[in-house]
Amino acid sequence: MSIKVIIPTVMQTLTNAQKTVEVQGNSVRDVVSDLDKKYPGLSGRLLNGEQLHSYLNVFLNDDDVRFSGGLEMPVKSGDVITILPAVAGGSY
């Protein structure tokens, strides 16, 4: 089961400058685990213990995984996971 993961620029140093990678898994957690096997250190950038870092937005296709099952959300072949660091700040 092949899942496409879109990697943000700030994490591409861990994926040999690849913007997208293909991994395997049956859930978002499995995908994170496979990402870390193929690209060591990536799970540390994605997880805070057993949860996604609060400053990351992770989408499975068009659904924010935080509101749709979290790391246990099931994935299927052909799905796309997009990792987006949250952007904040600015002033008036």
TrEMBL record:
InterPro entries for the chain: Beta-grasp_dom_sf, MoaD_arc-typ, Mopterin_synth/thiamin_S_b, Sulfur_Carrier/Prot_Modifier, ThiS/MoaD-like
Membrane spanning stretches: none
Classification via SUPFAM superfamilies: MoaD/ThiS (SSF54285)
Annotated Pfam families: ThiS
Organism the protein comes from: Marinomonas ostreistagni
Protein name: MoaD family protein
